[in-house]
Amino acid sequence: MKKTILMFPDRINTNAHAEAKTQHVFTKKFRSLLEFWSYITKSKKWYLEYQADTIEHIEKYIETLAPLIAKETNELRRNMEFSKSDNFIIAQWDNLLFRYKDKSELVLQESKKLKTFCANCKNERRGFSQRYPKSICHECSSKVTDKNGRSIEFFNSEALGSGCQGCYSGTNQKEKYELNVCYIDGKEFVAEEARFGGIVINLKEEL
């Protein structure tokens, strides 16, 4: 259930729309923004209930909330217990930092702390990949195999970095691997063309 949060200096109003024609309105007071943040993040999928675009006047509180947002969304990406569609909602929280980073040095520094982690080894990846939070690192890409444990690699099959084709390692790209599903120690991943060229290998989502 999506809730709209109206923030004021002395109170935070939360409007919950349970049905199209029924509106439940309640006011809850918080002693601090930290208490407020603890309240909205107490559930496992808090980001689905309290979405970034529902907070009005967020710019007044962004310096206090920025480190809290970075810490919380980093932990979500570390655990990877969200769906592809959930990721777009989580990204809206990160985008608050990017939106106001030019107006605040503190927010700028917190935006640089946003992290993504390898979906296989769990180590922090180089750079922040908001679009591919469940991809694997360069080191783990060399561990990709077919279902029987034979090493495979993927490359762009078309000009300008488009297409995705697999082949067996050590065959000079002559022996093709015709699937996009691959494995690392029995864990399933999916290879695909990256948006701006190259190949990205993501953890396969459970249906």
Number of helices: 6
Order of strands across the biggest sheet? 3-2-1-4
Structural class: alpha+beta
Radius of gyration: 21 Å
What is the straight-line distance between the termini?
23 Å
* Helix-residue proportion: 25-40%
Low-confidence stretches: 8-26
**Mean pLDDT across residues:** 86
Strand content: 15-25%
Give the overall shape.
elongated
Secondary-structure element series: EEEHHEHHHHEEEEEE
Biggest sheet statistics:
4 strands, mixed
Number of strands: 10
Task: Give a description of the structure.
The protein has 207 residues and is of the alpha+beta class. The chain is 28% helix and 23% strand. The two termini are 23 Å apart. 19% of the residues are buried.
List the helices and strands and how they pair.
Blueprint: E1 3-7, E2 12-19, E3 22-28, H1 33-40, H2 46-49, E4 55-56, H3 62-79, H4 84-100, H5 105-111, H6 138-141, E5 152-155, E6 165-168, E7 176-177, E8 181-184, E9 187-193, E10 199-203
Parallel strand pairs: 1-4
Antiparallel strand pairs: 1-2, 2-3, 5-6, 6-7, 8-9, 9-10
Brief descriptors of the model:
23% strand, four-stranded mixed beta sheet, alpha+beta, 207 residues, three-stranded antiparallel beta sheet, 28% helix
Give a concise summary.
With 207 residues, the chain is α+β, with helices and mostly antiparallel strands.
